[in-house]
Amino acid sequence: MCSAPAYPTPRSASSIVQPVPAPPGEDSATPPGGPPLRRVTQSDIARAAGVHNTTVSLALRDRACIPEATRRKIQTIARRMGYTPDPALQALVAYRKSVVGAGAHSTIAFVTDTTGADCPGELQARELCLLGARDAAVKLGYTLEHFWLETHEIAEGRLGQLLAGRGIHAALLAWHRGGTSRPLDFDCRELCAVRVGNAGWNPSLHSVVNDVGANVRLGFRHARQAGYRRIGLVLPSGWDEASDGVWSLAFAVEQARLPQQDQIPPLTLSGDASNHASDSHGSPPESRAEALDRWLDACRPEVILASKPHVSAALSRLGRRIPDDLALIELQNEKPDATLAGVRQNYVSVGALSVETVVRLLQQNQRGLPSVPTVTLVQGTWCDGASLPFLANGGRQVSETMANGTLKLATTAA
């Protein structure tokens, strides 16, 4: 049996704002019955602790430059006195930071470990993300500088030293080769860092990523709306690994809604997450074509959700034409045109939201590793195209509504 959690008893207003006598020399209109009520300030805490105001400010922000014992002592005194930050003052500080001129302290690092020249799909996604990040940075009074760990001959262990030496306190950690996790091999205690995309930097940071699960479900439901019953999914193995299985899990959720005779297992093609354009990093073309051919014959899908660059060459070798023999929904439709139906990942929004997130961390002075990492999911946009023709004899109507912040879709037979 689950018991209700024990929450602390709310403090009364008198315990939150304590009566603090005005310091000598200050005018104070003392109301009848006691000293005036006013907000506890950092100067009050400094006098009580016997330290300088600057020490109090740094200790309340938990800065490592103040000894831990001193920080804990000052924080305890602040809690006992009922200190709370002044929201109006915080808003003023945030505003002043947002309008400061460009310089070292208003630079955000965008860190990757590959140029993407050998991975055109990754390069295209990164450029879109950079576009959104740069625009957002300029609007907030910051500049964005791109660091390639390998191209700039920067050892990852030196990255923290390099950024600190440049006076850069904010970093966006973006794409890297493959879908596996990699260590964050530098000291980030004085750094505000945000993970961009599904780059598996370890330990975890606040992240802004494409909502690939919602995008798979969006494509799946448009396939049902167009009248298709047997819907398949073809993925490079690295994609699912990089997303902790979100691609295949979202597909399984939608498959479970279908009659059992229409359910199709997904096909995973070997290859890493960065291989968007060719078969040079994974299965040779022949083995991909053979695996796809066996799966198509066994499962007989009417439409597949896939990335066209991963399957187009294999389908051509097998003599399968799109959309005459097989309909296709592109899961990475970054250059929408009339020929290709699919989901456009909103990389521009991912870049912009990443900057907004790291700027908020800067303004709130939240540096180092978060105790509770958060993830911001950015949904894709559906794009109609000729690769998904509507089946007039089996159409379905798909309605989408938002309820309590959750996407709910109801499908009814036409």
Keywords:
414 residues; alpha/beta; 434 Repressor (Amino-terminal Domain); Rossmann fold; six-stranded parallel β-sheet; six-stranded mixed β-sheet; 13 helices; 16 strands; disordered N terminus
Number of helices: 13
Average pLDDT number: 76
Name the strands of the widest sheet in spatial order: 2-1-3-5-7-13
Instruction: List the helices and strands in order.
Output: HHHHHEHEHEEEEEHEHHEHEHEEHEEEE
In what range is the share of β-strand residues? 15-25%
The CATH top-level class label of the largest domain: Alpha Beta
How is the CATH topology of the largest domain named?
Rossmann fold
Second-tier CATH architecture of the largest domain: 3-Layer(aba) Sandwich
Number of domains: 3
> What is the CATH H-level superfamily of the largest domain?
Response regulator
Helix content: 25-40%
Quaternary organisation: single chain
The assigned structural class equals: alpha/beta
The number of distinct β-strands equals: 16
Q: Give the N-terminus to C-terminus distance in angstroms.
A: 46 Å
Uncertain stretches of 5 or more adjacent residues: 1-34, 272-285, 395-414
What is the makeup of the main sheet? 6 strands, parallel
Mass-distribution shape: elongated
Indicate the radius of gyration in whole angstroms.
27 Å
Would you spell out the secondary-structure blueprint of this structure?
Elements: H1 13-16, H2 42-49, H3 53-60, H4 68-81, H5 87-98, E1 107-112, H6 120-139, E2 143-148, H7 156-165, E3 170-173, E4 182-183, E5 192-196, E6 201-202, E7 206-210, H8 212-225, E8 231-236, H9 237-242, H10 246-255, E9 267-269, H11 285-299, E10 303-306, H12 308-317, E11 327-330, E12 341-344, H13 347-363, E13 375-378, E14 381-383, E15 396-403, E16 406-413
Parallel strand pairs: 1-2, 1-3, 3-5, 4-6, 5-7, 7-13, 8-9, 8-10, 10-11, 11-12
Antiparallel strand pairs: 12-14, 15-16
